[in-house]
Amino acid sequence: MSNDKNNSNNQCAFYRQAAEAGKQANNKHQINIWARLLLHTNTIIFIIIVIHLERFLLILSAMLKICKINACPNGTLGLHLSRAPWDPYPWVSGIQEGSSAEEAGMRVGDTVLEFNGNDVLGQKILEIANRIRAHWQSGATDVTVVIWRNETELDNDCSDGGYEDEEQEDNGTIAEEQRKQRVQRSHQQHSSINQQSLQKFATCLQHIAQLLECPVCLE
């Protein structure tokens, strides 16, 4: 009888060990599956983030411009800056004809981000003017300006035309009217330009943040 009990106990112990070994093997298999899924998920997330960043960098490269404005004899740049209390950066509200700013490619509606590598976020127009004045007094011959330009806003100088009798029109008057129209359009569209750009930037960051969230705990 004792031998039968020992045999049955040994068999039970063997079955328990086999069951535990099976559970461990099953757990390891499940862990391997989850590890592979996690690896593939992280790879996909990384690829999507790279794609979004690449698109965002393309947008930035298209909208960011660097202009080099040479010094004028009177010490001015030939442009007028405006900034509302809610505007983070000033923007170009006017450009003098034939000025260095016009020759450098500045346009009405451009948002000014930097002067000579200095960020002008939240600065008043007077503070910017004092910095530029000090820059001229140091003997500098040019000013480097980083601007934000919305490339979707087209300059329709040609589409405003359609004049059949150009010889009878005063070219100076036409140019002045077109310039006034561009200034008026820039005033009307400037706030929408900044809002659209900021919305695109916020949407891109939101997509990236959602991709980085854990699908289980959403953190």
What features would you describe in this structure?
The protein is of the alpha+beta class. It folds into two domains: 2-61; 66-160 and 169-208, Roll (Pdz3 Domain). It is 55% helix and 14% strand. It contains four helices and six strands. It has helices at residues 2-63, 100-103, 125-137, 171-212; strands at 64-70, 79-82, 91-95, 111-115, 118-119, 142-148. The strands form two sheets. It has a four-stranded antiparallel beta sheet with strand order 1-6-4-5. Strands 2-3 form a two-stranded antiparallel sheet. Strand 4 and strand 5 form a beta hairpin. The radius of gyration is 33 Å and the shape is elongated. Mean pLDDT is 68; it is low at 153-169, 186-193 and 215-219. InterPro entries: PDZ, PDZ_6, PDZ_sf. Residues 66-133 form the PDZ domain. It comes from Ceratitis capitata (Mediterranean fruit fly). Pfam families: PDZ_6 (PF17820). This is (Mediterranean fruit fly) hypothetical protein.
Q: Which structural class do the helices and strands define?
A: alpha+beta
Portion in helices:
55-70%
Task: Tell me which CATH architecture of the largest domain applies here.
Answer: Roll
How many DSSP-defined strands?
6
Put simply, the count of helices is 4
* CATH superfamily descriptor of the largest domain: PDZ domain
The major pleated sheet works out as: 4 strands, antiparallel
The total domain count is 2
Percentage of residues in DSSP E strands: 5-15%
- Rounded to the nearest angstrom, the radius of gyration is 33 Å
Strand line-up of the largest beta sheet = 1-6-4-5
Top-tier CATH class of the largest domain: Mainly Beta
> Which ranges are low-confidence, i.e. pLDDT below 50, for 5 or more consecutive residues?
153-169, 186-193, 215-219
Shape assignment = elongated
H/E order of the elements? Answer: HEEEHEEHEH
* The CATH topology of the largest domain: Pdz3 Domain
